[in-house]
Amino acid sequence: GNGKVAGKLSGRIVDADMHDVARFLNRLLGLAPDIQNRLFDLFISILDVVLHNARREGQLDSGIVDIKGKNIELKEPPKTVHVDSLSGASTILFTFTIDRGVTWESAKAMLDGRENDGAGSSNDGFYESKREWMGRRHFTLALEGSTEGIYKIIRPAIGEALREMPLSELKGKYRKVSSIDKVSKGWQDEYDVSSKQCMHGSKCKVGSYCTVGRRLQEFNILGGLILPVWGTIEKALAKQVYQNHKRIRVVRLVTTNDNQRIVGLFIPNAAVESVLTGLQWVQDIND
Q1: Which candidate, 170, 242, 182, places its Cα nearest to that of 211?
Q2: Which contiguous run of DSSP H or E holds residue 170?
Q3: Closest alpha carbon to 75 in 235, 228, 217, 247
Q4: Which of 99-103, 212-216, 240-244 is modeled with the greatest confidence?
Q5: Which residues on neighbouring strands pair with residue 165, listed in sequence order?
Q6: What is the pTM of this model?
Q7: Mean residue pLDDT across the chain
Q8: Does the pLDDT value for residue 140 go beyond 70?
Q9: H or E element at residue 25
Q10: Vertex 251, ends 245 and 257: CA angle to 5°?
């Protein structure tokens, strides 16, 4: 309930209710609609900041994460990296190559398909960023989703973005481009550059281990028997320099060439050697 001072309502939320989101949302229903909307917008903006900070610090737990890409294939045969002395079960390292990008031809076909079906909106189309990043402007394809005024964002390097974008944000950050020649060249350039380089450019502090905005990625999953060696993996990841390399994440993917389904622990490229060294040490102790 509301806090009271000398028997009078103070408007302050008592400590017991501070983390009760359901009660907070129910109380919003007792307010005028315009105030509800403003409070809810404030709530969502704060939540976005909290999630952004957690994601940046590697502390956001998203449960099982589905890894998606235009093309996902095993780079090499799986390697047995540990065998449990009691059960004989194996821990296996899978290394995949993932292409997340969308070619210019595919992007153009998406837009043409919408226009031919009459399903698109007048704001569907190709956009160019208003600001330069690392000396270049970036291109994107925006298509209105199932909610009016909310757009799916498709980029050359990473395909469809996880977060859809309101029209106001889209127009604030990008300008619509009508010149097909300009878009096709910009799209192709970004598609090509992102095959080997992250969005931070050649001087990125993380170097070749950075995957932000990189189209082609090498992706490692540790599968098979995991629980007996969980602590060893956790210790190896804890030694990593970068915060987002330290957290254990359970991931799932399906290969595009043979529909092989793999579930396991994501191991960053920078941590593979440390993890394998730890598993070998456990193997030597058990033997």
Answers
A1: 242
A2: helix 167-173
A3: 217
A4: 99-103
A5: 151
A6: 0.65
A7: 85
A8: yes
A9: helix 21-28
A10: 120
Write down the pLDDT at residue 6.
53
DSSP state at residue 14? P
Query: Nearest-CA neighbor of 25 among 5, 3, 47?
Result: 47
List 17's β-bridge partners, or say none.
none
Structure tokens at 69: 């890409």
Q: Which residues pair with 270 in a beta bridge?
A: none
- As a whole number of angstroms, the distance between CA 12 and CA 253 comes to 47
Q: Which residue would you say has higher pLDDT here, 256 or 62?
A: 256
Distance CA 155, CA 136 (A): 15
d(CA 60, CA 62): 6
Backbone torsions φ then ψ of 145, nearest 5 degrees: -85, -155
What's the rounded mean pLDDT across residues 104-111? 95
d(CA 118, CA 113): 9
Residue 52 tokens, joined:
């952004």
16-71 pLDDT, tens digit each? 777 777 887 787 788 888 888 788 778 788 887 887 776 655 566 667 788 888 89
Exposed (0-12), middle (13-18) or buried (19+): which is 43, by Cβ within 10 Å? Answer: middle
Structure tokens at 6: 């000398």
Cα angle value 245/199/73 (rounded, 5°): 65
Beta strand residue intervals within 40-83, DSSP E: 65-66, 71-74, 79-83
The C-alpha atoms of residue 126 and residue 129 are separated, in whole angstroms, by 10
Amino acid identity for residue 209 in this structure? Y
pLDDT tens for 64-90 read 788 888 899 999 999 999 998 888 899
Res 155: pLDDT? 94
What angle separates helix 104-117 from helix 180-193, to the nearest 10 degrees? Answer: 140
Instruction: Please tell me the distance from the alpha carbon of residue 107 to that of residue 159, in angstroms, as a whole number.
Output: 9
